[in-house]
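User: structure tokens for this one?
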Amino acid sequence: MMDSKVMADKIVNIIDDRKGKRIEQIEIKDITVVTDYFVIASGTSTTHVRGIADEVQFKMEQEGVKCAHIEGYETASWILLDFLDVVVHIFLEEERQFYNIERLWRNGGSYRPKPQEPEGENKQSEDNE
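Assistant:
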């Protein structure tokens, strides 16, 4: 069985390869028995969100890890992939801002494993055009 930290790191890399946005990994194993890690990311459209979810499932199956449960695939505004030790949340940005699950789990150890573009940086340049 794959270590939960190794699994979370692999999932982060898969999401990054599929151009997921604002990827965060939150270690919550010391504050809940639900899971060890949350991996949270955003997609730019429902097609992108589904594509990220499909790729995570496919690549993890190649590693011998099956997804135990999937929620939200039909609407694809928030897809949850439950790998038991790691739960993956892939959102449309509007849904992510609304639910703000990072805030709910802020007592966990959170970090952005990849350098991300600061929020609002592109928005400012768009406003100036």
